[in-house]
């Protein structure tokens, strides 16, 4: 599995597991627990080590399921990302959010902790809590999500440790973060772009170029769409699937090597 290397030499696999809608969406759905647990465990057996979740997912229940699923796996080999929701960005609520995520995940340290979205809370207040949590060893790395370039620069100035990622929507057919300068800024400053919704939640439009390149590689169009993402510098992605076949296909997509001509044709097709 190809990786992207953080500032201190820590590698992050270019293919991670997203968990949005596992165990519920905005609210817990216990009827989906077995399905979610099976999917997470199947991913771990395949070789996934980066799991991305958030306290907002199923109102914290997804974190609980992730914690349950990883209990029998070697924690030292896993890289866990989670996020604080917008209403919890005050100093006290951020600290409480971190402790809540630690408890639900059943771990002592969160590898990567993100601000999920901005609200009206001053970033200085949020980062006061985040920096404190890093110093206390509760968090290893800090990042942001859905931030524009100005917000990223402010975050970099406020963070006592390097901002290691901005998690944004990015796919063959979603290029807004390229046009607004976020992705070029990240790539120019050695900040990981974590692409979410990389296949548009299974609704990616399969255009002629994508279908032709997929056929040439004996791959699915979705695999080529993922390969196009992770072959770009400083880009990783976190597709979600409950389907073991799709989990394997997503994993294998990271091993597909596209030619420069194929990369350019896909770029131009978006």
Summarize the structure.
By secondary structure, this protein is of the alpha/beta class.
Distance separating the two termini: 26 Å
**What's the story with the biggest beta sheet?**
8 strands, parallel
Number of strands: 10
What is the average per-residue confidence, as pLDDT, rounded to a whole number? 97
- Return residue spans where pLDDT drops below 50 for at least 5 consecutive residues: none
Strand content: 15-25%
Helix proportion:
40-55%
Number of folding domains? 1
Strand order, main sheet: write it out.
3-4-5-6-7-8-9-10
Overall radius of gyration: 18 Å
What coarse outline follows from CA principal-axis ratios?
Answer: globular
CATH architectural type:
Alpha-Beta Barrel
Helix- and strand-based class?
A: alpha/beta
How many DSSP H or I helices? Answer: 11
CATH C-level label: Alpha Beta
Order of helices and strands: EEEHEHEHEHEHEHHEHHEHH
Descriptive terms for the model:
11 helices, globular, alpha/beta, eight-stranded parallel beta sheet, TIM Barrel, 270 residues, two-stranded antiparallel sheet
Give an account of the 3D structure.
This protein is of the alpha/beta class and 270 residues long. The protein has a single domain (3-202, 235-241), classed as TIM Barrel, CATH 3.20.20.100. It contains eleven helices and ten strands. The chain has helices spanning 33-46, 61-70, 91-105, 123-135, 149-158, 176-179, 182-188, 208-216, 221-230, 244-253, 260-269, and strands at 3-5, 11-13, 17-18, 50-52, 79-84, 110-115, 139-145, 163-169, 192-196, 235-237. The strands form two sheets. It has an eight-stranded parallel beta sheet with strand order 3-4-5-6-7-8-9-10. The chain has a two-stranded antiparallel ribbon with strand order 1-2. Helix 1 runs parallel beside helix 10 (244-253) and helix 8 (208-216) packs across helix 9 (221-230). The relative contact order is 0.13. The mean pLDDT is 97.
């Amino acid at each position: 599995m190809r990786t992207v290397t953080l500032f201190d030499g820590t590698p992050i696999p270019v293919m991670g597991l997203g968990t949005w809608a596992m165990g519920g969406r905005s609210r817990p759905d216990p009827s989906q627990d077995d399905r979610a647990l099976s999917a997470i465990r199947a991913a771990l057996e395949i070789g996934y080590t980066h799991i991305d979740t958030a306290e907002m997912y199923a109102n914290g229940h997804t974190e609980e399921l992730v914690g349950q699923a990883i209990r029998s796996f070697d924690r030292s080999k896993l890289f866990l990302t989670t996020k604080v929701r917008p209403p919890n960005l005050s100093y006290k609520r951020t600290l409480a959010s971190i402790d809540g995520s630690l408890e639900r995940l059943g771990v002592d340290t969160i590898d990567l902790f993100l601000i999920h979205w901005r609200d009206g809370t001053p970033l200085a207040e949020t980062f006061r809590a985040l920096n404190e949590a890093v110093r206390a060893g509760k968090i290893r790395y800090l990042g942001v999500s859905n931030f524009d370039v100005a917000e990223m620069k402010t975050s970099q100035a406020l963070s006592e440790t390097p901002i290691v990622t901005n998690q944004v929507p990015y796919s063959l057919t979603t290029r807004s973060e390229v046009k607004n300068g976020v992705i070029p800024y990240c790539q120019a400053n050695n900040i990981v772009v974590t692409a979410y919704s990389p296949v548009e939640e299974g609704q990616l439009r399969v255009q002629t170029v994508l279908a032709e390149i997929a056929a040439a590689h004996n791959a699915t169009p979705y695999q080529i769409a993922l390969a196009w993402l992770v072959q770009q510098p400083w880009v990783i992605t976190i597709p979600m699937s409950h389907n073991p076949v799709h989990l394997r296909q997503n994993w294998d997509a990271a091993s597909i090597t596209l030619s420069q001509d194929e990369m350019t044709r896909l770029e131009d097709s978006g």
